[in-house]
Amino acid sequence: MKIWKAAAIGLGVVAVGATAAFAYYRQAVDQPPYRLIEKSGDVELREYAPMIVAEVTHTGDRRPALNAGFRRLAAYIFAEDRPGEEIAMTSPVMQDQSGEIAMTAPVLQDGGDATGQWRTRFVMPAKYTMETLPTPPEDITLVEMPTRRVAAIRFSGNGNSADLAEKGGALREWLAQKDLTASGPAEFAFYDAPMVPPPLRRNEVMIPVE
């Protein structure tokens, strides 16, 4: 009985620590601002303000490409491979499938474990401009994204490929019901650090619309 009590206490400490880390992370990390146009259950239609993103592309399966892209962009913002100041981390980390395949294969772009070119993006803090951001390495590109509208569906969990495919399909059904036309491939947004328990994580599939 004492062993089970000790295990329960240990799990409780871990849970409290993870919840505290989750609360701190959500408060400390900025997110890009948007205007909410419509909300229907877990789906939102949003209008995002212009933003600057740093992006890098890797070829391979989706999950390894995301991990590689995250590490590469983290090295840039934390000044590990360049001189100058660190850049504050923001949320979410975004991923989509770059190239023509994303526009011609909806099943793949909605989260299948496809092998292809996967683009990972970090949103730059709003205080920066293209002129004031540190010059990135050659394999990282800074891109100015204009005002745009996206439909987004939110869900918790690990954000695995099966969930992305399921939520992407549901989001496209919602677009069809609203007579909205996608203007680009699906994008995946991951908002939380790995130490956040999966039930508390925020993930989204986002589709830009005309």
Features:
alpha+beta, disordered N terminus, Multidrug-efflux Transporter 1 Regulator Bmrr, Chain A, nine-stranded antiparallel beta sheet
Task: Describe this structure as you would to a colleague.
With 210 residues, this protein is an alpha+beta fold. It has a single domain, classed as Alpha-Beta Barrel (Multidrug-efflux Transporter 1 Regulator Bmrr, Chain A). Helix content is 32%, strand content 29%. The protein has five helices and nine strands; from the N terminus they run αβββαβααβββαββ. The chain has helices at residues 2-28, 62-77, 101-104, 106-109, 161-177; strands at 34-40, 43-48, 51-60, 93-97, 116-123, 141-145, 148-155, 187-190, 203-209. Strands 1-2-7-9-8-4-5-3-6 form a nine-stranded antiparallel beta sheet, covered by helices on one side. A hairpin with a 2-residue loop joins strand 1 and strand 2. It is globular. It starts with a helix and ends with a strand. Residues 1-16, 18-25 and 100-112 have low confidence and may be disordered.
